Structures are given as C-alpha cells and as structure tokens.
Amino acid sequence: MAKLVINENKKCGRIEPEIYGHFSEHLGRCIYEGLYVGENSDIPNVNGMRTDVVNALKEIKVPVLRWPGGCFADEYHWKDGIGDKSKRKKMINTHWGGVTEDNSFGTHEFMELCRQIGCKTYINGNMGSGTVQEMSEWVEYMTFKGVSPMADLRKENGHEEPWNVDYFGVGNENWGCGGNMTPEFYGNEYRRYQTYIRQYDEKRPVKKVACGANVDDYHWTEGVLRTCFDHVPEQFHGFMDYISLHYYVHPEGWEIKGSATDYDDLAWYKTLNKAYHMEELVSRHSAIIDQFDPEKKIGLSVDEWGTWFTVEPGTNPGFLYQQSTVRDALVAGITLNIFNKHCDRVKMACIAQMVNVLQSVILTDGARMVKTPTWHAFHMFRHHQGADLLQSSITGAQEIGMEEWTVPDLTESVSEKDGIITITVNNLSVTDEKELTVQFAENKTYEVVEASILTSGDVHDKNTFEVPDTVKEEAFAGYRADGKQIVLSIPKASVVMIRVK
Ligand code: AHR
User: Fold this and answer.
1) How many other CB atoms are there within 10 angstroms of residue 468's CB atom?
2) How many whole angstroms from 70 Cα to the centroid of ligand 1?
3) 77-97 burial by CB neighbour count: b if 16+ within 10 A, else e?
4) What's domain 16-386's architecture?
5) Closest CA to 61 of 386, 493, 459, 487
6) Ligand 1 pocket mutation pick from 246, 351, 360 by most atoms within 8 angstroms of CB
7) How far apart are CA 143 and CA 154, in angstroms?
8) How many whole angstroms separate alpha carbon 301 and alpha carbon 464?
C-alpha cells in the first residue's frame, strides 16, 4: 500500500503566494464580458468590473494578475488605452480573431480591477513592436509620484497617486509572436530595455521578468542567461528578478489539440502525462538557471500554463473558449503540487487564462457565471499560499496509464502555516480508488481539522450555466485517523485536501 511520509521538522522553503497567480489577455471574452462590462452595463458592476466575477476571484485569493498579454502585449501601445474612452484609438486584435479592440480597458481599468480583487499587478511590456522610450514612459506613468511629463499625464487622467507595479515583463514569447528573436538578440535587448525601467520608489521596486522559454527550449534559457550574465557591470545587480516559462497541455499535439469534454481513457492519460511533464521542465530549466544564479535569487515564473483544447464547438476559433471538466481539476492539482515542491525556484506562475479563455477558473455567458472545476482546485490549494513547504514523499506509488502515457497514480505536496499542515493529494487513476497511509516523523498526536474532495460521478462531468454545481469541492469523509496516522481512501480521478494540527 502507498505511504505518504511527512517530515514536519524539515521545512523546504516558502511557497510564494504568487505561484497561484492568473493571466488575463485581451483575447476573446476574457477582459471584455468576462471581467469588464463597463459602467453602463445591466450586469452588476463596480466601475465596470463584474461584481460576481470579482467576488469569485477574491474567494480563491488571487495573489497576482498578469496583463495585457500574451501575444497581444507586443502589439499593445499603452497610450492608446488612457484618457477619455470615447476618444481612445481603436485597433485590430490581429492575434485573436481580428476583432476591433476599442481600448476601453487600459492601464487605469487594470489597476482598478487589481484593487478590487486585492491582488498584485504584473504588467507585460511591449518589446516586440514598442520602443525603449514607450516602455520607460509607461513605468514612469504608473509609478512616479512627483512632477514629470508622464506623472502629470496620469494626474490629468484622474489618478493623482502612482500605483504599485509589482512585476514588469520585458516582452512576451519573444522567440515567437513577440518578434521571432534569437536568445542572444533577446538577451541583448533585455539588457537595454530593462535599464530604463526606473525604480521611482525604492520601497516598492518593480520586479523585472525576462522572457523565458517555450516548453523544453533549454537552448533559449541558456542563451538568454549567458547573454545577460556576460560582462555584468556592478550597477546591473537586480537587473533580472524572474525568467519565465510557458507550457500548455495539448493531449493530441499542437495541431489537433483534442476535445475538452469528449475523451476516452487514453486521452485522459495523455493529458495527465503531459501535465506531469511540468516536473521535468521545471527541473531542467531550474538546473540551467542554477549555473548562472546558484543563490537562487532569480525566480522561475511559469506565467502561462494550463490545458489548451480545441475550442468549444460553434465558438470563434480565435477566442480560445473551452469547457473545463474533472480532468482539468486533475491537471491543476498535478501542476500546483509540482510548483509547491519546486518552491525554491518557482516563485510565480499564472494559469492561462482567468475567464473564458483556455483553462479558466470562471466562465461567463451574459449575466451568468460558473466556477469551473479548476476554480475549486485553486480554492482547495489556497491554504498553501505563503506556507512553508514540508519535506514529503510517497513510497509504493504505482506507475499507471495506457501505452506510453503513464503517470504516478498519486501525487502530493504538503505545507505548514500557522501550525496547521495542509496535504493535497491527487489520484490520477481514471478507474481505481487508491489507499494512502499518511505518517508523520514526529511522535505527536494529530487531528484532522478539515478535509475536502473534488471529483464527480463521471470523469467527464463539468459545470454548465444550466447546472453550475456538478463538480465542486465537498466535505471528505473517506479517511480513518487514529492520531498517529491517517488512512485515506481516495476515489478515482480526484483531488483531496486534508488539514491537520
Ligand atoms: O494564452 C494564449 C497565448 O498563448 C498567449 O497569447 C501567448 O503568450 C501564448 O502563446
């Protein structure tokens, strides 16, 4: 029988809350309709932000939000999105459906959204088609307190005080949609652009994020870091706080992708096998970063991750709208456990995307809203935010799956905060219940204070606008605890969270 051994005396680092971050792009119905409906909408809103959506996001304690893209970021000119809305320049969203972008959601609106959610701000700048001056002025506009052309413009536009920009991305996917650069070219451009991201408030520095690799492009990570760390002058310290990684799960590959809701057991294991591949990606990219930054000052920011399926039938292919099932909950559970266990290097991550796009936590249809299974997974995992990772391992786990698409049957991570230990375990089997004995190193008595499970009768189950609560977190009673150990009976295809003290 499988055994989970927890060494509560061995703390392995802080799980940064930002690992539970989100991404929102001007893509499909993510920003418009999903988050922002405008002040004059019949849908209840505060300053244009949907009240139902904001409340649901607060429940999962969203720590940080990345915006405005994605590929959109390297075509976005921030000055088009400020000032009188009726006069804002319209543009074509060439990447995503060729629709007209009216720029009614811009910098002020994003900052207002983050204020309402109560999260940190992660702005992604335009290196692909923007200038150093444009990027530099955006930072000045947002963060400078005194008298200056950009600070004065912000004040004219109604915001006297500067905002906090917690993270600033220097370009997005510059190996592809962000300019088709080589790692060396990007590395040199990064050096130049980041120089002009000025720190106007030393107490609240803007942390800089370099564009990292696509999937397993280790050559990119190595090339960017080698270029950036070559001949580093003294004043360069603090010139890079994060480097990113983007990875999406397409069960049938990039071209075909695969259905979000109609899958057999083989597609189940393909999907989970590909989700579990995150373990190798994070390990190998981290090993490269270690060569340049052995003190682990630079965080790995997995700022785009999640499932990417074929769009929902009948929807605009450029809008990337997909449903979300029990399988997505497992992808989230697998991935978040991996991030927790690599918290020495993974310091931030943003699921793609927040609402109505790819593996969303929320779907909307007019005034209606549903929380997806992924929302429930984030709700269960929220206790890990800011906690100390505890050393833990499972012995006796089995490798399961079909054909070459195998995965361990059980994955886990364990953390402690305020004297409470949170254990999150996934049963990846699509057919079998699993038993797991949880043991602690310390000879103490532990009592279960909370236990919940996320699963459903049918592994294809999803939440719809008509029936919104089919897949949800529910109280879990499938355990026996005698104070020294806990024996869990974990149903097939489920995410379990158990808290002890
Ligand atoms: O999230 C959708 C797209 O995926 C983003 O715009 C881009 O960065 C990535 O390729």
Assistant:
1) 16
2) 5
3) ebbebbbebeebeebebebbe
4) Alpha-Beta Barrel (3.20)
5) 386
6) 246
7) 10
8) 32
Confirm if 242 and 299 have CB atoms less than 8 A apart. yes
Measured between alpha carbons, how far is 354 from 257 in angstroms, rounded to an integer? 20
Give the chain's mean pLDDT.
97
* Closest by CA position to 65, among listed 16, 138, 126, 119: 119
pLDDT digits (tens, 9 = 90+) for 72-127: 999 999 999 999 999 999 999 999 999 999 999 999 999 999 999 999 999 999 99
pLDDT in tens, 119-136: 999 999 999 999 999 999
Catalytic residue among 101, 109, 189, 304: 304
Q: How large is the angle between the packed helices 326-341 and 278-292, nearest 10 degrees?
A: 30
Q: What is the pTM of this model?
A: 0.98
Q: Average pLDDT in the 406-425 region?
A: 98
Which one-letter DSSP state was computed for residue 87? Answer: G
Q: What is the CATH number of domain 2-8+390-500?
A: 2.60.40.1180
3-class state of residue 312 by DSSP: coil
User: How do the domains of the chain map onto residue ranges?
Assistant: 2-8+390-500, 16-386
Q: What is the pLDDT of residues 314-328, one digit of tens each?
A: 999 999 999 999 999
Catalytic status, residue 252: no
105 and 26 Cβ atoms separated by less than 8 Å: yes
Cα of 96 from ligand 1 centre, angstroms: 10
Residues whose CB is less than 8 angstroms from the CB of residue 332 and which lie 6 or more positions away in sequence, other chains included: 306, 351, 359, 373, 374, 377, 378, 381, 495
Which is it for strands 242-249 and 299-307: parallel, antiparallel or unpaired? parallel
∠ CA 310-312-314 to the nearest 5 degrees? 120
Q: How confident is the model at residue 235 (pLDDT cuts 50, 70, 90)?
A: low
